[in-house]
Amino acid sequence: MRPILATLFCALCAHAASFEIEAIRVTGLQRLTESKVIEALGLRVGQKVDKPDFDAAQQRLIDRGVFASVAYSYKPGPNLRGYAVTYEVAEIETVFAWKFEELPGPEAELEKLLRQDPLFADKLPATENVLKLYSKTLSDHLKIPVIGRVYGDRPGDPYIVFRPNRPRAVIAQVTFEGNSAVPVADLQIKMASIAVGTPYIEENFREQLMNQVKPLYEIRGLVRAAFPKIEVKPATDVDGLAVVVHVVEGEPYKLADVKVVGAPQELADAGEFKRDEVANFGLIFEGVSKMRQALRGNGYMKAATEVKRSYDDTKKQVTVFVHVTPGPQYRMGKFYFTGLDIVTEPYVRKLWGLKEGDPYRDGYPNRVIQRIHDEGLLDGVGAIEPKLDIDDKKLIVNVTIQFKGQPKQVEKKRGNP
What we know:
It is built from 10 helices and 19 strands.
């Protein structure tokens, strides 16, 4: 049987133009689908072909800028009437999300236009051919010059932007309307320091509002403050954009309760929260920080918290849920001094109250050192530095306190801090 197949294959090679494609396969795909790549090949089952047609299809894929490599092979088809061809591809690994910016018309319509291309996807490689192809498609459709390029407005999160082929306009002014609880100057100072002089990108600008401006309302209990509308227009007296932020402040809310999830409710006592008073989220976050400190002061060195909220819009109250992940409890390991003479060291060692096996108290070495400095317990001591050796496997903390410079004398004797 093999000699017959070999003879037939040689006949196919010699008279390729008279034979059809019986099967097409694409291998090596990671993100793209086989049917879409076959569509981009420009070959179809039943088509009469010869080797130059396979070469041309290979070149079409290469020219798309989507694949790092494209190879192919062919053999007699399953029905022995023609070819079974297989294209082996390797997709370019680095791809980016894409977005439209400042283009006229509905974005859904523009996306539908680009998705007519079989290789268009949710993430694209930023090769020259890819960016040129889709920029030209948009330009022809919109009748304006469009360019596609990669932007890195967010560190570590670059993306492809299709936008008019002109420089991005930058923010020259930021003003607010509808605010009364927060002084206008405070709002403008916050945004001027981070937004003025930067290109206007609504997503980034709204994120800046939430991170920098919203807290100014939340410390006043205005936890429902929102920025429903942002107007952008050319500035009248300077070069750039004037951005007007419309504010809806809402009413102040009170703190109904703080509930602890993942740890005993008593942990909330460390936060010293003021219930039934205006929900000042500046103080609330400080209280959550105190809760973490309390955990770390009991050996939970990697304690973490996440704050969530539940609003009662009828009573104008907010309940805070602190989700706690304590992590493992670390204990005190070995304790060492360096830089002290044999006379002074026993005295200083008495200042150390933690015993081996006790829960390690985060910050304890610094408190001991601060006491030495503040109370002048050792005259002539220079720099004192703590060194922690944290053993994550044994869950212990070994501490070395390094004294630089010899003390002249022991002045006082005190109890443990």
